[in-house]
Amino acid sequence: MTQWFYIADLAGVAVFAIAGTLLAFRKQMDGFGVVVLASVTAIGGGTTRDLILDVPVFWLHDPTYFLVILIAAMGTIMWLRFKAYIPLNRLLIADALGIAFFTVLGAEKALNAGMSPVIAVIMGTMTAVFGGMLRDVLARDIPLVLKSELYATTCIAGAIVFVIIQPYSPNIGMAAAMITTLALRLGAIRYHWSLTVFKEHR
């Protein structure tokens, strides 16, 4: 089971690195900007989580993560050489895949560290959204987490599904949580779902 979570972690890093590279392309950044944005997106949330949980930062003793970031970024750059434009929805879909992976991984790591289910949900959400938030701030965009469409809420829902099912079947819990997060986020992108709090005044 640990091996599956490690593979999922690397997959999440790759997807978020692609999302960071796509945004760097949209912002016409240079090579250094691409590496910075891809790296911050891919490991920013997990790094923050580990520091809060007071556990070893996951990438310090495993260079595989940076190798995955580099390969994902370079592969995206090579693909973009054949495309003059990348639609915004591709970036949003890549980001949605990333948060689906990282919601589960963050919640699982918190549970393994002895945290309560409530803290696991918070850590899962933080792992999923914080890297993207740092990416958007560096790129001078409004962070997706602050926009009206469902974003962090989808991670909360996925993490809750995971902590409920995980004690009975970790594999099913992992799959169900990822599907929940991804389906809600893609639905929010497609249908502009939101949790309206304030009424519009005209």
Provide a descriptive summary of the structure in words.
The chain has helices spanning 2-26, 31-53, 64-80, 88-112, 117-138, 152-165, 170-191. With 202 residues, it is mostly helical. It has one domain (3-191). α2 (31-53) packs antiparallel against α5. The longest helix is centred in the N-terminal third of the chain and has 25 residues, at 2-26. The mean pLDDT is 90. Belongs to the UPF0126 family. This is Trimeric intracellular cation channel family protein.
Short summary:
Helices cover about 75% and strands about 0% of the residues. It has helices at about 1-25, 30-55, 65-80, 90-110, 115-140, 150-165, 170-190.
Ordered list of secondary-structure elements with their pairings:
Blueprint: H1 2-26, H2 31-53, H3 64-80, H4 88-112, H5 117-138, H6 152-165, H7 170-191
Helix pairs in contact: 1-2, 1-3, 1-4, 2-3, 2-4, 2-5, 4-5, 4-6, 4-7, 5-6, 6-7
Subcellular location: Cell membrane
Main location: membrane
Family: Belongs to the UPF0126 family.
What count of structural domains? 1
- How far is the N terminus from the C terminus? 54 Å
Mean pLDDT: 90
Rg, nearest Å: 16 Å
Order of helices and strands: HHHHHHH
* Low-pLDDT runs: none
Shape: globular
Helix count, DSSP H or I runs of 4 or more residues = 7
Oligomer classification: single chain
**Helical residue percent band:** over 70%
Beta-strand share of residues: under 5%
User: Largest sheet, described in full?
Assistant: none
Query: Would you tell me the structural class of the helices and strands?
Result: mainly alpha
Number of strands: 0
Pfam families: Gly_transporter (PF03458)
Protein name: Trimeric intracellular cation channel family protein
Membrane topology: Multi-pass membrane protein
Main location: membrane
